[in-house]
Design brief:
The complex is a heterotetramer, with two copies of chain A (384 residues) and two copies of chain C (344 residues). Chain A is an alpha+beta fold and 384 residues long. Chain A contains 13 helices and seven strands. In chain A, the strands form two sheets. A four-stranded antiparallel beta sheet of chain A has the order 2-3-7-6, with no helix packed on it. In chain A, strands 1-4-5 form a three-stranded mixed beta sheet. The longest helix of chain A is centred in the last third of the chain and has 29 residues. The two termini of chain A are 35 Å apart. Chain C is α+β, with helices and mostly antiparallel strands and 344 residues long. In chain C, the strands form three sheets. A four-stranded mixed beta sheet of chain C has the order 1-3-4-7. In chain C, strands 2-6-5 form a three-stranded antiparallel beta sheet, with no helix packed on it. Chain C has a two-stranded antiparallel ribbon with strand order 8-9. In chain C, strand 8 and strand 9 form a beta hairpin. In chain C, helix 7 packs antiparallel against helix 8 and helix 9 runs antiparallel to helix 11. Classes of the chains: A alpha+beta (384), C alpha+beta (344). At the C-D interface, helix 8 of C face helix 8 of D.
Chain lengths: 384, 384, 344, 344
Amino acid sequence: MDFEWDAETQRFREEVRRFLDLHLTPELEDQLYEEGLTHDEGFAAALGERNWIAGEWAREGFEALDGEAMQVLEEEFARTEAPYYAVSTSMMVAKVIRAVGSEWLNSEIVPKVVTGEVAIALGMSEPEAGSDVAAVQTRAREVEGGWVIDGQKMFTTNANICEFVFLLARTDPDSVRHRGLTTFLVPVASDGFEAQAVVTVSGERTNITYYSDLVLEDRWRISEVGAGWQSLMMALQDEHSAPFCAHLGRALDAAEQWGADPGPDGTAPIERADVRQRLVKVATDLEVARLLERRTSWMETVGEVPVAEGPMSKLFSTEAIVRGSEELTALVGPDALRSRSDPSAVHGGRIEHLLRFSLGTTIYAGTSEVQRNIIAQRRCGLPR
Amino acid sequence: MDFEWDAETQRFREEVRRFLDLHLTPELEDQLYEEGLTHDEGFAAALGERNWIAGEWAREGFEALDGEAMQVLEEEFARTEAPYYAVSTSMMVAKVIRAVGSEWLNSEIVPKVVTGEVAIALGMSEPEAGSDVAAVQTRAREVEGGWVIDGQKMFTTNANICEFVFLLARTDPDSVRHRGLTTFLVPVASDGFEAQAVVTVSGERTNITYYSDLVLEDRWRISEVGAGWQSLMMALQDEHSAPFCAHLGRALDAAEQWGADPGPDGTAPIERADVRQRLVKVATDLEVARLLERRTSWMETVGEVPVAEGPMSKLFSTEAIVRGSEELTALVGPDALRSRSDPSAVHGGRIEHLLRFSLGTTIYAGTSEVQRNIIAQRRCGLPR
Amino acid sequence: MDFALSDEQHELVSSFASLLGKASSPEQVRAAEPGGFDADLWRTLVETGVVTMGVAEQRGGWGASLLDLTLVAELVGRSAAPAPVVETQVAARLLAAVGSPVALDALGPVLAGEQLISLAVRPVHAAVAKLAPAGAVCDALVVLDGDALRLVPVSEANRTTVANLASAPLADVRLENGPVLVEGPVAARLFDAAIDEWLTLTAAAVVGTGLIALDLACAYAVERKAFGAPIGSFQAISHPLADDATNLDGARLLAQEAAWELDRAGDRGRELAAMAFAFASATAERTTYDALHTHGGYGFMLEYDVQLHWRRARGWPRVWGDTDAAHRRAADARYGGSRRGTAG
Amino acid sequence: MDFALSDEQHELVSSFASLLGKASSPEQVRAAEPGGFDADLWRTLVETGVVTMGVAEQRGGWGASLLDLTLVAELVGRSAAPAPVVETQVAARLLAAVGSPVALDALGPVLAGEQLISLAVRPVHAAVAKLAPAGAVCDALVVLDGDALRLVPVSEANRTTVANLASAPLADVRLENGPVLVEGPVAARLFDAAIDEWLTLTAAAVVGTGLIALDLACAYAVERKAFGAPIGSFQAISHPLADDATNLDGARLLAQEAAWELDRAGDRGRELAAMAFAFASATAERTTYDALHTHGGYGFMLEYDVQLHWRRARGWPRVWGDTDAAHRRAADARYGGSRRGTAG
């Protein structure tokens, strides 16, 4: 066993940090927070220039990054809250297109995702289909040369600034559940498309997207007709190894800095036994979260499928974020109530923001309950 | 609102304490613990002499105790681990007999329960029917003048020292679930009865009881044929107001005494901020548990049925016992590992014993999961 | 032992429930964000006597018990009312308890509804009362400054409003000169007694916060279907809510017991008040989390009401401190002041 | 980054798994209660080299890494082996690390299987090493007595065996004269390094305890039916077990990381060892509780195996201290020694 990045990966991490120092300016950070954005075209273009969007794919002038480098890249982006989310959803879709999409989609869309010119939002959950994604009701009706789409998608984050939505729709009206679904790429410029802003507790904007008699040529179909579920599963596989723990690390850093600064009585809080102990408990959770996440990513690197391990790392990390942000807020005390946007906030309000941010983490990309169901079945061998 | 016992009840509590000082001798306590017993004939007889077995019923020379007095009585018995369990199960059955039993049972059995001459164990759960009591398989086959019983009951605590078992059996072989059940009083002296000892983690003995071609005259039938489930529910109603929190109080007392004694470095542990804080957290749970229990008992006193409140107090108290005994054991540290039976044990090993004792409390008399199901339905209005 | 409310208490509850139902609807609560103060609501409440009721009759009030006030506080919490009820009630009772001419002079305009006087629940450091409750909207603030209780005038000149998690009207208040109400050991003693009351009423308020969040979650869990069944039929959803319902009942009883004990000046008042605060705020935090989580992605949307309560369950109590701080206070009351140890 | 065991490590695991499967079955574990020591098992283990393997080659051992030893410790925990593997391994490594003639003289008979030497994991008070691990069966005990590491001979004359929750071979040992191994600051340093190892290996052992309890619970939950379905299909049963499975994986990785860091003498060894101990023991406590509770009334019967593990999950680690103590140790390592505060 080896619990350390190899020297090359460590050098790569330094390179990523230099990149972020350059491109993730305080001004950009503030702007992103104020507008609730998780995507920035300039930042995405800069990523594309280094081939850090599709790092795992070699292209002219760039070697492919290995699994360790990809993990480090994502950890650093998460740690710094870099505007990376639309880039990552775009890549999820690009991989599906590569695996099952047409030649035309592969030549038209994938290269633009790689360079950051095109971004793709995910349109999966619906008002009546959240954890139960298979309950999808959005319809795609086949017509001459294409499809007419009607329906509504919830939480289509970044649909307002992306060029496309990856859409899961029911193409067989008589089908139920996982069968009869198909995936499409919907240009947001289409007639009949509308994105309505939804603001979340963390301040991030997401969208409800509406599809009304939206006419789509067949070339925008990604999966085989009726094979949408399989292509969706392909897209979601990547979600398990998202480095959630880096968010907790960011808040712990802020709390440890708070602890090291002298308080009103002149002593640093961290010299108090109870403060040290509470911080270390969060640090322990963070250590475990990081190990579980890195194991998941390592398994993927060596070609193993983390059927239970992926859900374990997603579950543990996000629950640790919830526990940890509650604990750090309580520990820092009244001053932790000051909003991230308030000038008097403690260490930029990182902890206050994480507390609000934490709420989404145990919901999206599979709720904690869904993860526990999977672990119970695949790891514990318990019946459904 | 009034959160205090009235003066009469407080005087009564003193009387109960004097009784316990006299009758619950250290020798008896040791003997009960060593033999794993929760019943003692001499103690029961002394209770009977004061009409403290059927306190809520007046009889010649004794007025009925009111709800407050009954609650105080049970709290004191639980707090001191008095051998009261068989007395309480006997009274559960005596109440059922009074409500639905024959005249003969009422004149033959009930008076002897009241005086402590006769004790009755509960025979409800079975190898395949635990939380799901209605899955009962023990059969009572009607024959000329009576019944032939075949089956097996789990956790028939005190069956080895009681005179009778209150038995739930299926009298209609074609029935399922709650229907077709009948309750009986089975003399343990019957041919075909056998009690096999089962020792539990807490050191208490319980039994598996076997019924093999056991012939029972019809006069031992308690409920109408087929109305056993209703009579069982009647018996179980009392379980909700059992004063579990007194057990936690006993362990907290021991831990607070430990805290007040100087440690190896000469200072009392209770002067340490972390120790005080952890003790007070347990004391807070105890306070809440006591309030919930007393509310349940008060509701019964004023004639309200604690449909959700009973399960709430049982759930909270027993989960608080589990949390509290883990916490106090951890707090007292290595020395808390010394067994109750070891001469070097801390304060008689009360805390070590509670830790083991706690395990049963969240299981018997309705598991925590069953209580949560009930609360979810009756209080939160959630569907089954 | 009696767990029933009196007829008068039932009436009190129903009149405030009806008032707040009308004047502090979710729409009104949202409209008052982020400032956390609705002047119309406040006027209505003051006219109804929400501040006056808590003051002793011989001081010009109606002599309501602290137990009565817990009933009001719970409704304030339930409706997330953008009105500083708890801190103004406690400040008025404190002025009455001080009883000095200066204090009674200050109390007059409060009872007349002309002045809004609040209480800084934490001691002052470096001449600033940080995160003073209602500091953003009050005319004056009672503060413990060293060994003196002082009445500090508050205006735009000496307050800095603080945007905060709960959208509460908090401000950092720079201490201007202001009259001393009382000084010496009695000042600290009266301040501590006021804190006992504030902790108890805040406990009751966040019980209300928890109860409304639980109601929202249960209603959602009955309506919302997944995998062909209402989500409330899944134990992963229903069992946490059952625990929350249980804890809320316990928290309410404990807050009421603390108030009852303080009302009769019993030995355990301080201990029970701190315990009630600790237990109620922990319960409200957990319940509002579970309730928000029950809503899935919808709970995370500002548009759904449950987040209003999730934020208040944390922000309202924590201007004083967290559950650990409350446990330490309870321990000092139960075991005598600590002589060692750093945690205060 | 590499999460795979080497081929040699896989072999180590399979050979010890097979040995313990045969020689430490539940029946054998029960037969050794309450003393907690099976002399036959111990002889077999010693002959297999369980103590020798951990000692450096230049001291006559096989030079296994601490990471290797965590693999063995996990199996010891899994089988609830009535054999003091962890404390004797650590004591032998400590004697080798001391390296003084007295220490090496003592190490000889240990490697030859003639002496059982254990370690008192807590400092001595009033000339008594309380609750010394393997104190009831060892021939000698390494103790930190003031600023000296001493080797104390142990016999019936100076030990009092203590009946205990875990049925572990614990004793209070009165210190007889015994040779000083080393004294001065180096003694405390070496003792602390030994404690790091003991904490890491005990973490691994209780991960094994948790894993076997989880296996028993899952098997039961598949078999046992209630309300017409296997109880494992109820989320109230399955979700806690899913959390436990997750925590156990994390605890194992953390114990392994701590061992790896200590093996390479990295900066974070002490911190990670204490974290691993805290996290693993909390996880083992919770898992064994959930596992026992999953069994319903049967879990509460001595006859079912799950209680064996519930008792060890608490008793094995706690001879040193609880999770709070471990967090304090980790904090001292992470933030530097505390200068204030009472909690040690």
